[in-house]
Amino acid sequence: MTILIDKKTKVIVQGATGHQGSFHTKLMKEYGTNIIAGVTPKKGGQEVHGIPVFNTVKEAQDFNPADYSILFVPARFAKSAAFEALDNGLNLVIISEGIPIHDSIGIMNKAKENALTVIGPNTPGIISVNECKIGIMPSHIFKKGKVGIISRSGTLTYEIVNELSKNKLGQSTVLGIGGDPVIGIDFIGALKLFEEDHRTEKIVIIGEIGGDLEERTAKFLKNYSKYVVVYIAGRTAPPDKRMGHAGAIISAGIGTAKSKINKFMSVGIKVAQLPSEVVRLLK
Description:
Layout: E1 10-14, H1 19-31, E2 34-39, E3 47-48, E4 51-54, H2 57-63, E5 68-71, H3 75-87, E6 91-94, H4 101-113, E7 118-119, E8 125-128, E9 132-135, E10 144-151, H5 154-166, E11 171-176, H6 187-196, E12 202-208, H7 213-220, E13 227-233, H8 257-266, E14 270-272, H9 277-282
Parallel strand pairs: 1-2, 1-5, 2-4, 5-6, 6-7, 10-11, 10-12, 12-13, 13-14
Antiparallel strand pairs: 3-4, 8-9, 8-11
Helix pairs in contact: 3-4, 7-8
């Protein structure tokens, strides 16, 4: 088992004819992801790396129904593209960054109404190793194994995955939940799925400053059945200054690295001081 996606998952790419969409469509296809169609308005009838392109999501779904859509569209068009996918029964991976918070709230509300999953926005995506990749993660660093990873940070994900792979600690599914203040599936939602996944034995959470998601996650982990290791980025970040992601900001003393680390430690979760320490804590 894996979580959310596997080798049977069928995917469409919204924005497949753009530079980034085309580039990553090729890489996802080469990894083995079952990409069945692209969607770009007014580009229907074209092909991208042998994949047919349609004008609308409905046309693509009528051609061959998919399970997920990945969005490579400018932020100003993300809401309408997401709504189009959700209206056609598709789960979403939203790569786009800079989406207005109000638009993201609308996307999440619609997904909830339709009982569909949203990964992101501002995410590197998701990979179930050696089965399916929906996103922009560098495929070569992943090795199949029994460690699940949930992360707010793309770059740190790659660093920690690379260290795990070099130390023969392979991964089951690696999920980037996104760095924006409003996201779809979060740490807690992913942890629930990993708890039911018999292939995942240990879990790494990569958090960062800003918001209270990590604090709420620590409370959830109090009675969790699997072994979890945490790393929190942004220990030296000054108050009221955004660091990288839109969600990575400390305000009025809330969301500090110290508060998050203390919450995890208070429920018995081991917290790495450096990304390189994650390997040691997992062994």
